[in-house]
Design goal:
Elements (H helix, E strand, L loop, with lengths): L11 H9 L3 H17 L5 E4 L68 H13 L27 H4 L30 E6 L5 E6 L5
Parallel strand pairs: 1-2
Antiparallel strand pairs: 2-3
Amino acid sequence: MDHVNIQDVPTAQMLNIAHRSSTRYAEELIRAEILRRLRLLPGPKIRLTNTYDASSPSLRFQFITEYVLREGVIKLDPATTVGCQKCSPHMGRDIGCEYTKKCDCLEYAAVDENRLTTEENTIYKYIKKHGGDTIGLPKKFPYYAEGTKRAKTGCLVPFYLKSRNPIYECNDNCKCGRDCRNKNVQFGRRIELEIFKTSSRGWGEYFIVLSLI
């Protein structure tokens, strides 16, 4: 039995064989495995598109459907979450938390300065200078509600989309109901997704949305 020194691997012969060998079969197996994993994920269909070559995303890629908690991080017990108690499913346009002055979940959300009264504006200026909470002041909702452009329903409004302000959602213990417009991310992906290969920037993805306008 021949012995090979690990320091000599790969040998010139190995490199020559590898250079001349086709990777098509391996690429087909990887593509099949990626598609199998995508089919197992919950929610609407996820498509995989590559019009440039025969490659697929790495098998090491992990598509997650919930938070992955690392060592030392403990998941919050839902029983300890209070939620907004002054809201109801029938506020405003029957879309849950319509009146942001009442919603406790939005206590730390960005203040909607365009809706401040003269008195509220004075209070807000004092808070910004000296500190304090902004509960009772109108807050900016993070998502579009149903309106003239239905394709935008549930999408982030420009203020949050273009800033680093945190988004505060209502939770299961809130009294605003399941259809509150301040509940979105927590329900997971509800539309189709396409993972696609780009010409020079690797793999990307986008949601497939049918415009109803």
